[in-house]
Amino acid sequence: MNATETAKLLRRLGACEEARNWVQGHTLAWAWEKCERAYWLEWLANALGVRMTDSARAEYDRVEAAAWAKYNRGRAAAQAEYDRVRAPAYRAAVPYAEILKAAKERA
Length: 107
Fold this sequence. Notes:
single chain; mainly alpha; elongated
């Protein structure tokens, strides 16, 4: 599928503007091989009605689980820092007296 056909297909399928801009001027084969966003690949396959075989799904699930585990290990420290900074700001924005009043009303 040439670049023009690929652009028309992605537009017709409802691909996001960012994806359409990224693939602009390239073939579908190029996009499939070069894309590093798994969710774009998954979106395209689903939009085209293409499904994995059971054995391919099992292997993909194994790799995905390992990737998620690695991602979550790295994310935990960032999430803790994000919460550490946000919590005091939230407490400052929502007075405890309002929390206590609402809690007693629902108790």
